[in-house]
Design a protein that fits this description.
Blueprint (H helix, E strand, L loop, with lengths): L1 H24 L1 E2 L6 E4 L8 E5 L2 E6 L15 E4 L4 E6 L6 E10 L5 E4 L3 E2 L6 E5 L9 E10 L4 E10 L6 H14 L6 H5 L15 E3 L4 H4 L7 E2 L4 E7 L3 E14 L2 E16 L2 E13 L6 E2 L4 E5 L9 E2 L5 E6 L2 E6 L4 E7 L7 H4 L4 E8 L5 E8 L9 E8 L5 E8 L4 H7 L5 E2 L4 E6 L2 E6 L4 E7 L6 E4 L4 E5 L6 E2 L1 E6 L5 E5 L5 E9 L2 E8 L4 E2 L5 E2 L4 E5 L5 E5 L5 E8 L2 E9 L5 E10 L10 E7 L3 E7 L11 E4 L3 E4 L2 E2 L10 E5 L2 E6 L2 H10 L3 E4 L4 E4 L7 E2 L14 H12 L6 H6 L4 H6 L5 E3 L5 H9 L4 E4 L5 E7 L3 E6 L4 E6 H10 L4 E4 L4
Parallel strand pairs: 5-12, 24-49, 28-50
Antiparallel strand pairs: 1-51, 2-50, 3-4, 3-6, 6-10, 7-8, 7-9, 7-11, 11-12, 13-18, 14-16, 15-16, 16-17, 17-18, 19-20, 20-48, 21-22, 22-23, 23-24, 25-26, 26-27, 27-28, 29-30, 30-31, 31-32, 33-34, 34-36, 35-38, 36-37, 38-39, 39-42, 40-41, 42-43, 44-45, 45-46, 47-48, 52-53, 52-54, 54-55, 56-59, ...
Length: 842
């Protein structure tokens, strides 16, 4: 009896505890009935920074302080005079004062701060002379804090880098400017061709994306003759003594076969200046057509999208299939096929926004669902340039009703940038008939109850291997072990019906492993617990002896096994599954044996609305929206304006940062990819000549960011000896350098992989398996030694390097040695290029 009472009390406490927990996690307004407001216009002034006579940064205002180093959008190089000039653009809001803080990019510590300087009416520029004692070639964050005439605080961010010696900023900027101008002169084609690296793999078939491997004809716009119609906004993205990454951002107009069209163009240059010469290391130009409802093809009944890199964005239609929804350039459109009318439902920019504002298109619109009552659900996310959320980065969920009303359902701000958010905000989202919006941001899966105005977490700290989406059937599937992806069970959750199907382990000696999804099915395998092995570098092999394809009900569709071979991993590609197989060798190790493929025959239905391309001599590849064959467009559609007001639920919930480490590749002026593995990100950044930044905003790796040589002092030798294994000695030396007191024998006695030895004491160890010696020396350049495996059970610690030599601490010999860099590069490669280092230690 007493036990039952305790249980009842416990359940009540848990219930109210849950209410308290979720109630405190939600920050909401007070108006449940909603308020109406105008969509508003852009008011924050943008600013440009001038240094050494060159405009190097174009900055847009944020309404709240951001995390240090979270904004990597610009770099402002300082010369010995430590002076910049702030140039203010035209805006509806005037800044009345401006101050600044200089912030450490890693810790957030404020190094210097000034009181705001008053700006007189109509003042368009302000000179700032820094007095802080900057370290040479070191990044700092500059937070320029303005106060508007309405009393609002506005923050502008750039990174600073100081050089006592001449870093040749003018030469680098002049080269990019000359190249840019010459692209508009066809007679300069041969001159520009000397800097290009044409490739036979580049088909030169589109103006949407042109790069250094394109032909000089395409770089000079082919048969098109565009005219610049806006300011050319220049921003330095990355900078060091030799190289500079520079972006041009502008709009052009050009005649096409359809008439005059407007395009948004971004150009990226990576320039090197050395020994008095300039070199073009990279060139990338993107071109996006502005949607124009007048430029349709009535002959083929198609809406013209034009030149674009976005030819697969989602379109939705109503149940009757006579209304189509699509988004282009930050604007959401509705095309009523019966009325032959296009309506602008929603736009991130106001109708009269200048090109200076439109240049900062750090946002997107995502279509989610049209329900049975013809109500459209969509979300806008990223940087909001106007209205109530001007200067915020957020995800906002909207409903556009069949009556033509625009409803804001929930506002979810985030303390990150659009560039990071677009990689954290998973593409898939769903609104169920029960009124629940499912979405994933920063490795956390959320469910927002629209009617109940409640946000719940379904899962957090998920990984690609443990939580997956079956988009075709609106289901989530996850492993009971979100850390590893294999465990006691796998759950399939139907978002529409709220039903769950569970696949359990066959016995206590076996795990069930989630392998992947394909169309409306998921793949899993069984693995013996005793077969799971961990390599010395910390990586695991999880060999499955059987592979299954199952549907949403958990019913097995197909079963596969291979004699004396095991499934190491899979890769889904359309309806084909590529399987990597492994075998067990005589020593008990699993080694990759071969690749195989299996087919998953799934029924596919033809899309009613899709994108199609055409090629013209003037514009090359252009894209159109294709309608069902029976549809006839009678004339050019009329254009109607959408709602001028929206009704807000006045509810907001703040989104959190990732709880697990992610690594972002920043290249060509933007974040191009994100990974859960640092080594994958480094390899991608090397190919793209970019930078790797972690989810906690540390610069992990930078192409061309290493010194020509470096030597780490303070290393203490630990010899391999009785009771101290070779790898434990390597780990001990790295830990000792980082002031971690540990006994080498106790460390060895634990018999852990070397990665786990470091992870027990250091916050951010990094497994660099598969990276090259050249890539990992970046860590040594930044005074972080690298443990390099020379065989399965042996390793050395790299503590220094030059162009021809390496300095190694070898626990086998107990000596520090200087060896041939090229010779040991081969040794490390033969050992599988297995390296381990770490990020900054707090």
């Amino acid at each position: 009896m007493i036990k039952n009472i305790y249980k009842a009390v416990g359940l009540v406490l848990i219930f109210f505890g849950a209410l308290f927990y979720f109630g405190n996690r939600m920050q909401t307004g007070v108006n449940d009935t909603g308020t109406s407001r105008q969509l508003g216009s852009e008011t924050f002034p943008y600013m440009q920074l001038e240094t050494q006579g060159k405009i190097v940064s174009t900055l847009y205002g944020y309404s709240a302080p951001m995390e240090p180093d979270i904004l990597r959008e610009s770099m402002t190089p300082l010369a010995s005079d430590k002076t910049i000039i702030v140039l203010l653009g035209e805006a509806a809001t005037r800044l009345t004062s401006l101050g600044y803080e200089i912030v450490d990019k890693e810790s957030g510590e404020v190094y210097a701060k000034t009181e705001p300087v008053a700006l007189t009416g109509g003042q368009k520029q302000l000179e700032i002379k820094f007095t802080y004692n900057f370290a040479t070639s070191t990044e700092y964050i500059l937070d320029l804090m303005g106060t508007s005439s309405e009393g609002r605080k506005i923050h502008y961010y750039t990174r600073l880098k100081y050089y006592l010696d001449d870093s040749h900023l003018a030469e680098k900027m002049n080269f990019a400017e000359k190249f840019h101008k010459n692209t508009f002169e066809k007679r300069k084609e041969e001159e520009l061709g000397r800097y290009l690296e044409p490739s036979s793999t580049n088909r030169n078939s589109t103006l949407a994306s042109v790069d250094i491997t394109s032909s000089s004809d395409l770089v000079t716009w082919g048969s098109m003759s565009p005219k610049v119609i806006s300011n050319e906004l220049v921003t330095v993205k990355e900078y060091n003594m030799e190289t500079a990454c520079i972006q041009y951002n502008y709009f052009v107009k050009a005649e096409t076969d359809s008439g005059e069209e407007t395009y948004h163009v971004k150009e990226f240059y990576r320039v090197r200046h050395a020994s008095g010469h300039d070199y073009l290391l990279n060139f990338d130009r993107t071109m996006e057509a502005e949607f124009d409802s007048r430029l349709v093809s009535t002959q083929t009944s198609q809406l013209k999208i034009g030149i674009t890199n976005d030819s697969d964005s989602r379109m939705l239609h109503n149940k009757a299939e006579n209304v189509l929804y699509f988004a282009r350039g930050g604007t959401l459109y509705q095309y009523d096929m019966t009325a032959n009318r296009i309506t602008k439902i929603y736009s991130m920019f106001s109708e009269d926004a200048s090109y200076d504002y439109r240049s900062y298109d750090e946002h997107s619109i995502r279509l989610l669902k049209v329900d049975k009552d013809d109500n459209l659900y969509f979300c806008a996310y990223g940087y909001f340039p106007r209205g109530a959320y001007e200067g915020d980065v957020a995800v906002v969920l909207y409903e556009y009703t069949a009556k033509g009303e625009l409803l804001e359902l929930v506002y979810m701000p985030s303390s990150t940038t659009y560039q990071q958010l677009k990689h954290d905000f998973e593409e898939y989202g769903y609104v169920s008939t029960r009124g629940i919006y499912y979405f994933t941001v920063a490795n956390t899966v959320y469910a927002y109850n629209i009617a109940g105005k409640r946000l719940d977490k379904l899962a957090e700290n998920i990984k690609e291997s443990s939580f997956m989406t079956m988009e075709k059937v609106n289901c989530y599937v996850w492993s009971s072990n979100l850390k590893s992806g294999y465990g006691e069970s796998i759950t399939v959750y139907n978002l529409e019906t709220d039903e769950r199907q569970v696949i359990y382990q066959p016995d206590e000696k076996t795990y069930v492993r989630l392998l992947g999804v394909i169309e409306g099915n998921f793949l899993y395998g069984y693995v013996k617990k005793s077969a799971i092995t961990q390599n010395k570098d910390g990586s695991r092999v999880v060999p499955c002896y059987e592979l299954y394809i199952a549907d949403v009900e958990g019913k097995v569709v197909k079963k596969f096994n291979w004699k004396n071979e095991f499934v190491q991993s899979i890769q889904s590609n359309g309806n084909v599954v590529n399987v990597t197989l492994c075998k067990k060798d005589a020593g008990g190790k699993y080694e990759k044996s071969r690749e195989d493929s299996i087919s998953n025959q799934a029924q596919t239905t033809a899309e009613k609305f899709k994108y199609g391309s055409r090629v013209t001599s003037r514009s090359l590849t252009e894209w159109y929206i294709q309608f069902p064959s029976e549809f006839v467009m009678p004339s050019v559609p009329s254009l109607a304006d959408g709602p001028k007001m929206l009704k807000s639920a006045d509810r907001f919930v703040r989104l959190e940062q990732p709880g697990i480490a992610k690594y972002y590749v920043s290249a060509a002026g933007r974040i191009t990819e994100s990974f859960e593995s640092a080594r994958q990100a480094i390899r991608a950044a090397d190919e793209q000549m970019g930078v790797v930044v972690s989810s906690d905003h540390q610069v992990v790796w930078e192409r061309s960011g290493s010194f020509l040589q470096n030597s780490i002092g303070g290393m203490e030798m630990q010899r391999e000896e009785e009771g101290v294994s070779n790898l434990a000695a390597c780990a001990y030396m790295v830990l000792k350098l980082n002031h971690v007191s540990v006994d080498a024998r106790k460390l060895s006695a634990k018999k852990k992989p070397i990665y786990d030895m470091l992870a027990e004491y250091l916050r951010c160890p990094v497994n660099l398996k598969g990276c090259t010696l050249e890539q990992v020396l970046y860590f040594v350049s930044n005074n972080k030694p690298v443990i390099a495996m020379t065989s399965d059970n042996k390793g050395v610690v790299i503590s220094g390097y030059s162009t021809t030599q390496l300095t190694l601490y070898n626990p086998e010999t107990g000596r520090q040695a200087t060896v041939s860099r090229s010779e040991y590069e081969t040794v490390f490669k033969n050992a599988g290029n297995r390296f381990i280092s770490y990020m900054n230690v707090e």
